[in-house]
């Protein structure tokens, strides 16, 4: 009787081990590498000499899809087309400057980018900016975007020299050139 009891216990344990293992009958199928250039556009508004801020949340699933974001296996930020771009200042009369531009990433990392204007300033309107500080910021954003919750909260603070509204199409664009791999699963 003890032998039958031990045998039954062994069978039950083995069946639990087989059914509770980390292989739920799904087979991983590697995908990629895939390449994606994504532009996150943040619209700006302003009143002279008054501090403004705007916020945005970037989610990886909105860029590459839910399945790829959830099952990401490898990622890399490609610097050759990764940059910051402020657009629209050249369309306003009189010309407008954005001053004291600061971008805060997930409430932790603040990057002071200076002034944006037409033809002058730290950032020239309509001209991509990809200096060391901008690359560090973009890498930090990409890091938050591809780990943990796979989303990043952006806050942009600035002052302006003239009024402009959302209809004036002044925007700050964050352009990411990314390479990524992910797994799909099938039974």
Quick recap of the structure?
The chain is built from four helices and nine strands. By secondary structure, the chain is an alpha+beta fold. It has a five-stranded mixed β-sheet with strand order 2-8-5-6-7. Strands 1, 3, 4 and 9 form a four-stranded antiparallel β-sheet that branches.
Describe the structure using short key phrases.
alpha+beta, four-stranded antiparallel β-sheet, 9 strands, elongated
Describe the structure.
With about 190 residues, this protein is of the alpha+beta class. The chain is built from four helices and nine strands, in the order H-E-E-H-H-E-E-E-E-E-H-E-E. The strands form two sheets. A five-stranded mixed sheet has the order 2-8-5-6-7. Strands 1, 3, 4 and 9 form a four-stranded antiparallel sheet that branches. The longest helix has 18 residues. The chain is elongated. About 5% of the residues have low confidence.
As a percent range, the share of strand residues is 35-45%
Mean pLDDT, to the nearest integer, reads 87
Q: Helical percent range? A: 10-25%
Q: If you compute it from the alpha carbons, what radius of gyration comes out, rounded to the nearest whole angstrom? A: 25 Å
Strand and helix order: HEEHHEEEEEHEE
Strand order of the largest sheet: 2-8-5-6-7
**Which term fits the overall shape?**
elongated
Distance N to C terminus: 41 Å
**Total beta strands:** 9
List the uncertain runs: 15-22
Summed up, the helix count is 4
| Structural class assignment | alpha+beta
Main beta sheet strand tally, sense and closure: 5 strands, mixed
């Amino acid at each position: 009787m003890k032998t039958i009891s031990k045998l039954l216990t062994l069978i039950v344990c083995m069946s639990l081990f087989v059914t509770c293992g980390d292989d739920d009958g799904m087979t991983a199928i590697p995908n990629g590498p895939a390449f994606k250039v994504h532009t996150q556009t943040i619209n700006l508004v302003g009143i002279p000499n008054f501090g403004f801020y705007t916020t945005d949340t970037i989610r990886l699933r909105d860029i590459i899809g839910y399945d790829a974001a959830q099952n990401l296996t490898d990622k890399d930020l490609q610097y050759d087309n990764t940059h910051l771009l402020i657009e629209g200042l050249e369309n306003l009369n009189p010309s407008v400057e954005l001053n004291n531009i600061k971008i805060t990433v997930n409430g932790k990392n603040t990057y002071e980018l200076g002034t944006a204007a037409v033809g002058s300033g730290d950032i020239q309107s309509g001209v991509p900016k990809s200096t060391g500080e901008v690359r560090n910021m973009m890498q930090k954003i990409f890091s938050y975007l591809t780990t943990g919750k796979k989303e990043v909260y952006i806050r942009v603070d600035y002052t302006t020299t003239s009024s402009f509204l959302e209809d004036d199409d002044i925007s700050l664009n964050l352009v990411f050139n990314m390479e990524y791999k992910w797994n799909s699963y099938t039974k």
